[in-house]
Amino acid sequence: MVEVKVRESAASRYRRLGNSDLTLSPLGLGCWQFSNGKGIVGKFWPVLLPDDIRQIVRICLEGGINWFDTAEAYGGGQSEQLLARALKEIGGADAGEAKIATKWWPALRTAGSITSTIDERIRMLAGRTIHLHQIHSPYSLSSIAAEMKAMAELVKQGKIRHVGVSNFSAQQMKEADRVLREHGLRLVSNQVKYNLLDRRIEHNGVMETAKELGVAIIAYSPLEQGILSGKFHKNPALVKSVKGPRKWTPNFRDAGLQRSKPLIDQLDRLAERYHVSPTQIALNWLIHANGETVFAIPGASKPHHAVENVKALQFALNADEMAEVAEVSRQVLNLSK
């Protein structure tokens, strides 16, 4: 078992998720990799051994991570089920009090299936509380208004605590929040792709709207599927061993690795200064660059990945360092100021 020693610091304190009463660690654990190789989405990851899943979850809990993000689409409920099983086997107060976020898959479905499938979500999670239920994407056969009304009904019934969305535009966020207000609720979060190599939400109104509404941003793919770790720059041959379709994306190609190298070099310099890894610098920037608006959900397919995540909570870059990282990122992405 890998030991994780948590140092008390401003960076490791919990914060409120948006305008909700949930107090969460700035990093949660993304649980897509617990899909057990099931379904099209689940085949993106190799099948993990139960002991590895249990170790990953335990390391997160012991390191101060108090919430886990899963979804119906991750292996058709396999991720939810394996997460709940690991928490039960670990036991203790931390596991018992862990917060759960899951998501409803909207493709080719209507809002009616939000209410008709919630009991299955609860069953997969072994009766655990769903603290945050999210619409996985804005593309369904129903309107946002109909979806939010269904979510509000689940809150009223006590089957979920809070409502979030994923991959919603600024305008869609506003519409979701407007409808929820009619039911005495608020939109709590928008889960979107956000990292140092993908900063679109800073320029398409999503970040601005989140701050305006008091909505949390939950950043998925916070390490650009491992690119920001720097390991593929140091050993490009590793790309050949990558499983699933990500190896064919532009960032994994030679030109993509060459383009992002100045950013990796900057992360390396700061990592040496703090005696941490580039991964931890990238995550630390993400959860502090916008005050307390951004949370992130890095995954972990091996126990040492979970250790990496936990250690990103144990220090904080200063303002000058965050500005330096942001500037190099801007140059790599060719973004205007």
Task: Describe the protein in words.
- With 337 residues, the protein is of the alpha/beta class.
- 42% of the residues lie in helices and 12% in strands.
- The protein has helices spanning 39-42, 50-62, 78-90, 92-97, 112-116, 118-124, 144-157, 170-182, 206-213, 231-234, 254-274, 278-288, 303-311, 319-333; strands at 15-16, 23-24, 29-30, 67-69, 99-104, 132-135, 162-166, 187-193, 216-220, 294-296.
- The strands form two sheets. Strands 3-4-5-6-7-8-9-10 form an eight-stranded parallel sheet.
- β6, α7 (144-157) and β7 form a beta-alpha-beta unit.
- The model is unreliable at 1-12 (pLDDT under 50).
> What's the rounded overall pLDDT mean?
93
Q: Tell me about the largest β-sheet.
A: 8 strands, parallel
* DSSP strand tally: 10
Strand order of the largest sheet: 3-4-5-6-7-8-9-10
Number of helices: 14
Radius of gyration: 19 Å
Class per helix and strand makeup = alpha/beta
Output the helix-strand order.
EEEHHEHHEHHEHEHEHEHHHEHH
For the termini, the CA-CA separation is: 46 Å
Overall geometry comes to globular
Kindly list the characteristics that best describe this protein.
two-stranded antiparallel ribbon; 12% strand; alpha/beta; 337 residues; 10 strands; disordered N terminus
